[in-house]
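step: validate -> pass
step: tokenize input -> pass
step: predict -> running
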Amino acid sequence: MPQAGQVTDLLRAWRSGDRSAEDSLLPLVYGELRRRAIHCLEGERSDHTLQPTALVHEAYLRLVDQAQAVWQDRAHFFAIAARLMRQILVDHARRRNSAKRGAGREPLPIDVAGDLADAAEPPDLVALDDALTALAAFDPEGAKLIELRFFGGLSLEETAEALGVSRPTVVRRWRAVRAWLYGELSRGGGDGRAAGRD
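step: predict -> pass
step: emit ->
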């Protein structure tokens, strides 16, 4: 994993107009972005057409295309990358679902006591995105926490850093938003399992 200070320095230089900083940034963050892309795709179907390398490249292109981006630090950069990976995967899922003509959403089996990414079946990303959008309407930080953990693959410590809160706060909020998300998705047909790990 790249050193936080190194990435932050390059992001600041890039923001100040140093184009060489952008060139230096990709090799430094590529491995971490790829690890997070693999995490995002772990629960997908085995025949998923989007591969980790393509997901990283698409996310990175969108990251560098943000002319007004003000990267605060490494954690902020990877938080935005997580959001972009979420958008890419959801857009991909929406296109796939619309191509099925009449095929409805499949239930999202979710393990409320465990990590969302550990669900036995691939998650319905469209239903998950809809639920996160609903959560963001009244709890933006909770939605961001789910996004960082599920789509970004961030640990509890990394999530705390990205949100600027303590690890115990993240643990407490993670339990609460997971429970809300489980309830929301269960109404849409989830299977309601409750075993797993924190």
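step: describe -> Residues 107-120, 189-198 have pLDDT under 50 and may be disordered.
step: cleanup -> pass
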